[in-house]
Amino acid sequence: VPVLLTVGCVTLAMNILNAKKVNRSLVENIERAQADLMVAMDTSQDCSKQLEGKSADMTAKDQQLASLTGNVNTLTDEKNKIQEQVNHLTAQLEEANAAKTALQAEKDKLAADLKAAQAKKEEEKKPAKAA
């Protein structure tokens, strides 16, 4: 019986030492997991801050893009109006040039008629002087 008690005590002592070793290992694993969790939380917070910053930048750029799009539309409308005015003025200029050309042709014809009339008048005066 004393041998059985000794063997039982030695087994219990070994079991206690083994349990302490396992407990120490588990505590180390828990501490390591907690440290990893803290690092992950810090990283998550950093990522959240960066995401908020990028979201703010994106919102600002979206507003700027909307503003620029509005400016482009306004400028395009102004350009179209100016182009219409240019087309209208070009048509008026072409009409004025056509009228000018017609008046120049009429002037040239009248000048030729005047010259012919003066030449005819000069010829009529010559025979009257000769007679």
Could you describe the 3D structure shown?
The chain starts with a helix and ends with a helix. The chain has one helix and no strands. It is mainly alpha-helical.
Q: Which key phrases capture this entry?
A:
131 residues, mainly alpha
Rg of Cα set? 55 Å
User: What would you call the shape?
Assistant: rod-shaped
Low-pLDDT stretches? none
Largest sheet: none
Through-space gap between termini = 187 Å
> What sequence of helices (H) and strands (E) makes up the elements?
H
Count every helix, treating DSSP H or I runs of 4 or more residues as helices. 1
- The helix fraction, in percent, is over 70%
Coarse structural class? mainly alpha
The strand count comes to: 0
Strand content range: under 5%
Mean pLDDT: 94
Summarize the structure.
It contains one helix and no strands. It has one helix at 2-130.
Write the layout of secondary structure elements.
Blueprint: H1 2-130
